[in-house]
């Protein structure tokens, strides 16, 4: 082995974390992660005040049209935030693995990111850390497709163990050998 080649380091098996249900079904595996968290409750309180102010503002008949047009950006933020809170209370991410396929759905409230992938199109799954501009850290599970493109599978996971557990369960079920991917969580 030359000096530029790193030995393959296996990742330790991640124990079943809280927040993810696992169900072995005939012909497949189902993993379910509920979105609900304390963060959603705090955001709901914020929405009550934000939306309450906007409702009281827009129901004032004496306001001229320009005064009703001015806070349209605030109205848009309120609508998006309320939808996000509503989804956070109700939604789950459902991952079905079986028969050479991987299906990811967010339900019951419609949400972007649903995926249906064939095992033959996937070469590797990997977990990564994501830090946004407000320094909030979350984790996501992604895949490398046969053509080399990376595709996001599940994002917004609050703990690295959730992403790693999903990765290991899906790889084991689909028969994908774990290999290093640039940008993945350290081994």
Model description:
It is a single chain. With 187 residues, the protein is α+β, with helices and mostly antiparallel strands. The chain folds into two domains: 98 residues, PH-domain like; 50 residues. It has a five-stranded antiparallel sheet. It has a three-stranded antiparallel sheet with strand order 6-7-8, covered by helices on one side. The longest helix has 21 residues. The two termini are 20 Å apart. The model has no long low-confidence stretch (mean pLDDT 92).
Descriptors:
single chain; 5-stranded antiparallel sheet; alpha+beta; 8 strands; elongated; 187 residues; PH-domain like
Task: Give the topology, please.
Blueprint: E1 20-25, E2 28-34, H1 38-58, H2 65-69, H3 72-90, E3 92-98, E4 101-107, E5 115-118, E6 122-131, E7 137-145, E8 150-157, H4 160-174
Antiparallel strand pairs: 1-2, 2-3, 3-4, 4-5, 6-7, 7-8
Helix pairs in contact: 1-3
CATH first level of the largest domain: Mainly Beta
Task: Please provide the count of β strands.
Answer: 8
What percent strand? 25-35%
Strand order of the largest sheet: 1-2-3-4-5
The percent of residues in helical segments reads 25-40%
The total number of structural domains is 2
**What series of H and E elements makes up the topology?**
EEHHHEEEEEEH
Given the C-alpha coordinates, what overall shape results?
elongated
The DSSP helix count reads 4
CATH topology title of the largest domain: PH-domain like
User: Given the helix and strand composition, which structural class is it?
Assistant: alpha+beta
Task: Write down the overall mean pLDDT.
Answer: 92
Straight-line distance between termini:
20 Å
Largest sheet: 5 strands, antiparallel
CATH architecture of the largest domain: Roll
- What low-confidence regions span 5 or more consecutive residues with pLDDT below 50? none
Query: Which value, in Å, is the CA radius of gyration?
Result: 21 Å
């Amino acid at each position: 082995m030359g000096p530029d080649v790193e030995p393959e380091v296996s990742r330790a098996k991640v124990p079943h974390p809280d927040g993810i249900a696992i169900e072995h079904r005939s012909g497949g595996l189902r993993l379910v992660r509920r979105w609900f968290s304390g963060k959603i409750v705090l955001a709901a309180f914020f929405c009550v005040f934000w939306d309450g102010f906007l409702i009281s503002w827009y129901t004032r008949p004496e306001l001229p049209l320009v005064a009703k047009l001015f806070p349209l950006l605030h109205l848009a933020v309120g609508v998006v935030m309320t939808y996000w809170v509503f989804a956070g209370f109700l939604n789950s991410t459902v991952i079905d693995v079986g028969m050479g396929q991987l299906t990811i759905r967010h339900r019951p409230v419609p949400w972007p990111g649903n995926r249906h992938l064939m095992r033959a199109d996937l070469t590797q799954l990997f977990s990564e850390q994501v830090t946004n501009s407000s320094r909030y850290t979350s984790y996501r599970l992604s895949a490398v497709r046969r053509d080399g493109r990376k595709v996001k599978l599940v994002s917004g996971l609050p703990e690295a163990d959730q992403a790693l557990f999903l990765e290991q369960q899906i790889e084991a079920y689909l028969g994908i050998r774990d290999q290093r991917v640039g940008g993945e969580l350290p081994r």
